[in-house]
Amino acid sequence: MKNSFYKKHLVDITHLNIEDIRILFKRASEIKKIVELKGGDNRLQGKIMATLFYEPSSRTFSSFVTAMQRLGGGIIPLFSMFNSSAVKGETLEDTARVFSSYADLLVVRHPELGSVRQMARYSSVPVVNAGDGIGDHPTQGLTDLYTIQQKFGDLNKLHVLFIGDLGHYRPVNSLSKLLSLYPQIRISFVSPKEVPIQDGLKKYLVSKKVKFIEANSFENILANVDVLYVTRVKKEYMTESLYHKIKGSYVLTNIFANSMKNNSIIMHCLPRIDEISHDVDSNSRAVYFSQQVRNGMYVRMAILDMILRKN
Ligand code: CP
């Protein structure tokens, strides 16, 4: 089996093909069984990961740290770049040079589009993008695709609906690009008119001949979808006035959730603010707490394993 992740950066996901993803997900499922049986193993003993987070994170940061620890590797215990020499003005380039002298892999989150790619140019070890501004969040996209695959098996013929602030939500970019690998996929994007999907994503989907629509309301679409992906309004990426204009545009209540197919799923990569009402959490369709969060750890364990070990 060809491991195309080995010693490579994971800055975006457009270079991955269906076979790469199949191999990654197989590894994630194998690792899941090991974790369930004995918590992990020592396959990454002697390897060190540096997490360079210039933006807050709960899930991505913690799941990478626990993923490395469960595989026997070590971490540089730096919980935020706000405790590093970045606050003294050290550049991204120098930071990449320095941390890649200590670690075998860098995991980087940064508010600016393209910043992680820039660091990858100066790093002597693989760099994983943990979210770069409004760009990509490859490990979240892969986690989401794994969650969908676990539910449906065959990823073709699914109808995926994204709702919310689609202009600023990087997991929408990453997951949509991954879905474009499956020729019969259908995607509906529902957003306030101020925050539609980005032109770059639209062009990408057109180039891949993906069947997609854009709309401003979701009520008439819900009954036909297999996957509903709800997003948060990214307050930190917009003006106060735009935030107040669009917040609360869509709130998924149990009445809406129950109008969906019985076999459908409701996803959110979290944090959730008020776009999904709390009574939906116990709806059998909701997978954001019950599966998506934990899958993030298994997929990141598989990513670390495949980048750091050839086999
Ligand atoms: N899903 C996600 O990226 O969450 P965090 O911002 O908490 O890492």
Automatic annotation (TrEMBL):
Residue span, Aspartate/ornithine carbamoyltransferase carbamoyl-P binding domain? 8-150
Stretches of the chain forming a coiled coil according to its record? none
Keyword entries, A-Z: Pyrimidine biosynthesis, Transferase
Q: Work out whether the entry's keyword set contains Transferase.
A: yes
Named in its record, the pathway it takes part in is: Pyrimidine metabolism; UMP biosynthesis via de novo pathway; (S)-dihydroorotate from bicarbonate: step 2/3
Q: Which GO terms describe its molecular function?
A: amino acid binding; aspartate carbamoyltransferase activity
Reply yes or no: does the keyword Transcription apply. no
Positions of the Aspartate/ornithine carbamoyltransferase Asp/Orn-binding domain? 157-306
Q: Which reaction does it catalyse?
A: carbamoyl phosphate + L-aspartate = N-carbamoyl-L-aspartate + phosphate + H(+)
Instruction: Give the UniProt record's GO annotations in the biological process aspect.
Output: 'de novo' pyrimidine nucleobase biosynthetic process; 'de novo' UMP biosynthetic process; amino acid metabolic process
Q: Which domain of life is it from?
A: Bacteria
User: What EC number(s) does this enzyme carry?
Assistant: 2.1.3.2
Q: What does this protein do?
A: Catalyzes the condensation of carbamoyl phosphate and aspartate to form carbamoyl aspartate and inorganic phosphate, the committed step in the de novo pyrimidine nucleotide biosynthesis pathway.
| NCBIfam families listed in its UniProt record | asp_carb_tr, PRK00856.1
Please state which protein family the record places this protein in. Answer: Belongs to the aspartate/ornithine carbamoyltransferase superfamily. ATCase family.
PANTHER family with a match to the protein in the record: ASPARTATE CARBAMOYLTRANSFERASE, ORNITHINE CARBAMOYLTRANSFERASE, MITOCHONDRIAL
Q: What is this protein called?
A: Aspartate carbamoyltransferase
Organism in which the protein naturally occurs: Candidatus Gottesmanbacteria bacterium CG_4_10_14_0_8_um_filter_37_24
